[in-house]
């Protein structure tokens, strides 16, 4: 690894990049070649899926647009005073790679109307360049630029995020807490950005985007855009420095005659002949002229082909009917509206039944609304939970956490009481009284992550402590006159002891969380620990238990005290959770999909770190339990805490390695699609749930018996891993709540995969997009209130 700062000029990150701990040249070469292979796999698959060459590619052509281009001297990178001759930029799709390579600046803008084939051309350019790619050269990468906000995010930062998302092998940091491999490739000038959809950037930001592009010098960049938005940006800012500009041509009647008849099969090969013949014979008649104008757009040709060539029983001659379609917008709306019914038509005999057309249309409309609300064109499976308002998600998980906790701990408490009914007092107390301790540590992981788990834990502690005290009974009869005094002493002692232990444990967990989950700054981690400490220990409830054990109180008083104090602790948990949430800023706004694989070789230092973190966590849990209990038991305390803490530390350390220490990034050449991304996150979530559940379940079982340990394992595994797993949110909200409310089908992933296979959706890396923005807009405008929340 190279040490010291490295300065590199001429990259997309702004001209000068200063980094420390940069990767070696061989590492950069390896990642570059992996990226090249991954991009090639991705766009070959997409080109085949979009039927670009089925049966032949549409003859898309273009011409130069010098009014929006820079001066030829700048495009050709000529020295001052040199004569600058225009480049021959006109051509067709099979010449795109050759024409691009003739541009010395490497900067090209592809302009065209909506549906004119800009994305198809971008994909063809990337594949053409990759076919002649040489080691060490830039890799063309297509990114949908609509989500970029140039006023808040530098292009190189946003681009690194997109690369890491779509190519998971580049998401891993070069070094611990260092920049990602994607960022390293950008710094090394190994990426040729193809920014697709400049017009999709939020309105009002196009000029800012163009200004930021012009701050990047000497770096090849390709941009695609609709004409109007790019023209407005140029007039409001400046031309794209060094960029040549071409504009896509309309399809001609000759192009249609060469293409459409070849799309129909069997006995339908002649269905387009009457339509084409009439357009030739009556070029100025309203019907033929209007249809000819609509079909100059490749998107409309694709829709017409899907509706009439691919679907039996349809006659394209109806497209000439001016009574049914009096104007071009009506004809375009018809083609957009019939596309979904066409692809969801009755399946072939013997095939698996698909979704009914009306349901498919309703589900797709819901997805279109969600994408519009999110301000993007991307549909990530892990983002579908955001279609549910945050307040609703909180309530759903609070209820679910409460149900699981009630079910598991209710069963274990009931089982323990049933098994020990009639047994000696000490045996009963050992199996039933324990939940007041074990609850604290069963929720250790879950409490770090938010309000729902904290609320539920407060309620569970309240009920558990109340039940425990009621079952526990009185060791001696006390005079009622002294009951209030003893209770006050017990309460004071318990509050002090519980609060002190909770703060100490919370501080330790806060620091551990800073190391494990990346809270920004040790100060925030310490604040988090101090604020959430009483929630971890539920100081009032836990302390009251110590006080009651020490002094002994009547059964009825213990029941009331347990319930009241537990509910008070629950309210305390709510307040502390709110305060803590305001103080913490986590690097990620939510759990992204996990994209890792298991690997041990060459990762000893990293694994040792995870083991050490788990050891501290487990040792702290075992030590605090025994040390605090020792206050109430003469002859115990520090020694027991140390003896119990050591094995628990080793156990939790081992489980920490299993949960978090064996993850390694996937290879840069891997093409991880939507389904594979979901599957990997599911596998990682289940592994982490098992590891966290076993780690804390064994701790709880040692303290309070096997039934309670099993309950702790289930609750801790589910609640604790949720903050690091997008799949659990997907399982509960997307696979559960959304289908339950009728917004999406029960087999959501199967529906998305099917929509992709039918051509309604397209895939870019690990996200879906609608086949075209016009289709998405049509679904929204024709059903504006169909599935609004």
From TrEMBL:
Residue intervals passing through the bilayer: 395-419, 439-467, 487-513, 557-579, 607-628, 648-668, 689-708, 714-738
Chain ranges of the NACHT domain: 106-201
Pfam families: NACHT (PF05729)
PROSITE patterns named among the record's database cross-references: NACHT
Keywords assigned: Membrane, Transmembrane, Transmembrane helix
Alphabetical list of InterPro entries matching this protein: NACHT_NTPase, P-loop_NTPase
Record's protein name: NACHT domain-containing protein
Species for this entry: Saccharopolyspora kobensis
């Amino acid at each position: 690894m190279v040490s010291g700062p490295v300065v590199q000029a001429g990259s997309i990150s702004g001209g000068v990049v200063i980094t420390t701990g940069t990767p070696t040249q061989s590492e950069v070469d390896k990642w570059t070649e992996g990226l090249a292979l991954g991009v090639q796999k991705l766009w070959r698959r997409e080109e085949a899926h979009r039927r670009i060459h089925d049966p032949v590619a549409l003859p898309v052509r273009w011409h130069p647009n010098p009014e929006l281009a820079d001066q030829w001297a700048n495009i050709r990178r000529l020295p001052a005073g040199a004569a600058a001759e225009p480049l021959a930029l006109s051509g067709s799709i099979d010449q795109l790679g050759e024409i691009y390579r003739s541009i010395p600046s490497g900067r090209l803008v592809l302009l065209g109307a909506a549906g004119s084939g800009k994305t198809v051309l971008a994909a063809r350019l990337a594949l053409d360049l990759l076919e002649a790619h040489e080691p060490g050269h830039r890799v063309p990468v297509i990114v949908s630029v609509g989500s970029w906000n140039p006023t808040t995010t530098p292009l190189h930062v946003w681009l690194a995020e997109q690369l890491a998302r779509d190519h998971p092998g580049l998401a891993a940091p070069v070094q611990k807490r260092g920049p990602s491999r994607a960022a390293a490739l950008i710094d090394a000038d190994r990426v040729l950005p193809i920014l697709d959809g400049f017009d999709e950037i939020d309105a009002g930001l196009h000029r800012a985007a163009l200004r930021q592009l012009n701050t990047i010098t000497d770096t090849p960049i390709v941009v695609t855009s609709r004409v109007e938005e790019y023209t407005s940006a140029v007039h409001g800012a400046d031309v794209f420095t060094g960029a040549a500009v071409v504009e896509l041509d309309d399809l001609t009647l000759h192009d249609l005659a060469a293409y459409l008849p070849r799309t129909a099969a069997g006995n339908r090969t002649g269905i387009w002949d009457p339509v084409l013949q009439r357009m030739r014979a009556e070029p100025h008649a309203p019907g033929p002229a209007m249809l000819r104008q609509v079909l100059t757009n490749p998107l409309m040709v694709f829709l017409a082909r899907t509706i009439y060539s691919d679907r039996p029983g349809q006659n394209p001659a109806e497209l000439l009917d001016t009574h049914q379609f009096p104007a071009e917008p009506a004809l375009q709306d018809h083609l957009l509206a019939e596309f979904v019914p066409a692809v969801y038509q009755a399946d072939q005999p013997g095939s698996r039944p698909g979704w009914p057309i009306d349901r498919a249309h309703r589900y797709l409309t819901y997805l279109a609304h969600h994408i519009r609300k999110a301000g993007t064109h991307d549909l990530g499976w892990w983002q579908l939970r955001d279609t549910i308002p945050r307040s609703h998600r909180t309530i759903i998980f609070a209820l679910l956490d409460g149900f699981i906790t009630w079910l598991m701990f209710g069963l274990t408490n009931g089982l323990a009481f049933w098994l020990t009914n009639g047994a000696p007092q000490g045996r009963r107390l050992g199996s039933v009284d324990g939940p007041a301790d074990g609850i604290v540590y069963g929720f250790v992981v879950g409490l770090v992550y938010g309000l729902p788990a904290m609320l539920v834990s407060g309620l569970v502690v309240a009920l558990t402590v109340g039940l425990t005290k009621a079952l526990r009974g009185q060791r001696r009869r006390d005079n009622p006159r002294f009951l209030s005094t003893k209770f006050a002493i017990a309460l004071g002692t318990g509050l002090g002891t519980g609060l002190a232990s909770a703060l100490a444990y919370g501080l330790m967990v806060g620091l551990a969380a800073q190391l494990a989950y990346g809270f920004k700054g040790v100060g925030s981690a310490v604040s988090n620990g101090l604020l959430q400490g009483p929630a971890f220990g539920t100081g009032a409830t836990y302390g009251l238990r110590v006080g009651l054990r020490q002094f002994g109180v009547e059964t009825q008083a213990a029941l009331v005290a347990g319930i009241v104090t537990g509910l008070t602790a629950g309210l305390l948990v709510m307040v502390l959770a709110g305060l803590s949430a305001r103080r913490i800023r986590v690097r990620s706004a939510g759990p992204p999909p996990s994209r890792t694989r298991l690997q041990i070789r060459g990762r000893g230092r990293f694994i040792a770190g995870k083991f050490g973190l788990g050891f501290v966590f487990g040792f702290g849990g075992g030590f605090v339990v025994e040390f605090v209990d020792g206050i109430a038991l003469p002859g115990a305390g520090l020694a027991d805490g140390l003896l119990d803490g050591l094995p628990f530390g080793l156990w939790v350390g081992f489980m920490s390695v299993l949960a978090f220490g064996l993850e390694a990034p996937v290879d840069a050449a891997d093409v991880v699609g939507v389904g594979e991304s979901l599957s990997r996150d599911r596998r990682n979530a289940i592994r982490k749930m098992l590891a966290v559940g076993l780690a804390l379940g064994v701790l709880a079982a040692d303290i309070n018996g096997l039934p309670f340990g099993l309950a702790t394992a289930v609750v801790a595994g589910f609640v604790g891993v949720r903050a690091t797993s997008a799949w659990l949110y997907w399982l509960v909200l997307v696979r559960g709540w959304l289908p339950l409310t009728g917004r999406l089908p029960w087999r959501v992933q199967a529906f998305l995969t099917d929509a992709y296979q039918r051509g309604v959706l397209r895939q870019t890396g690990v996200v879906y997009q609608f086949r075209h923005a016009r289709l998405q807009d049509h679904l929204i405008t024709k059903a504006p209130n169909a599935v609004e929340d």
